[in-house]
Write a structure and sequence with these properties.
Elements lengths: L9 E4 L3 H13 L5 E4 L3 H10 L2 E11 L5 E6 L2 E3 L2 E3 L6 H13 L4 E18 L2 E16 L13 E7 L1 H8 L5 H10 L3
Parallel strand pairs: 1-2, 3-8
Antiparallel strand pairs: 3-6, 4-5, 4-9, 7-8
């Protein structure tokens, strides 16, 4: 969403709820990888988009160690950052720390600052019916001050947890991760 077209393959001017429905149809049923809906009233566009999804809130961390390496998890064949759903009445900060601890086994973490929020859409079967999910992930920069080796949470499908240098991120992670991870990484260092 933006107030004007941006340099991507597909921009749609917002003309009401139908525009959002068309954008979702294009994303789900064509090879269109991304769409920008633009218009003056971003709050209206956002309201239409969220009304068509179940919104799931999540939190995660971009964790640096004393060598300035960043912590990544490997799940379902892709590199990712540790994150997960926020529990009832849990703060964003506590959720980010808890998920990081659960997925990596690391506990000596200092939460520094909020970085940004990313969004992505996916489908999920619930009670025999497929529904659209809009996942909002709130990201925090963190520092690990301990010496313990991370341990993957295998019951969540995590097969590896590794510290990566900026060079390794560019060579190994970026070609095999999600666009939202690339976006949030660009917020903390130039990639």
């Amino acid at each position: 969403m933006s107030k004007s077209p941006i340099p991507i393959e597909k921009n749609l001017p917002y003309e009401g709820t139908t525009t959002v429905e068309i954008a979702l149809d294009l994303l789900e049923n064509t090879s269109t990888p991304e769409i920008n809906i633009y218009g003056e009233h971003l709050d209206e566009i956002w309201e239409d988009l969220t009304s068509m999804h179940r919104v799931v809130e999540a939190a995660g961390g971009i964790v640096f160690n004393h060598e300035n390496k960043i912590l990544f998890i490997h799940r379902l064949g892709r590199w990712d950052l540790p994150k997960g759903k926020i529990e009832l009445e849990e703060s964003l900060e506590n959720a980010a720390l808890r998920e990081l601890e659960e997925e990596t086994g690391l506990t000596e973490l200092i939460l520094e600052n909020f970085v940004n929020t990313t969004f992505h859409i996916y489908k999920e079967k619930r009670q025999g019916k497929e529904e659209r999910i809009l996942k909002a992930t709130h990201w925090f920069k963190m520092t690990y001050v301990g010496q313990k080796q991370p341990i993957p949470q295998t019951e969540e499908g995590i097969t590896k947890v590794e510290w990566k240098t900026q060079s390794e991120i560019k060579q190994e992670v970026l070609p095999n991760t999600f666009k939202n991870i690339k976006l949030i990484l660009s917020e903390v260092f130039a990639i």
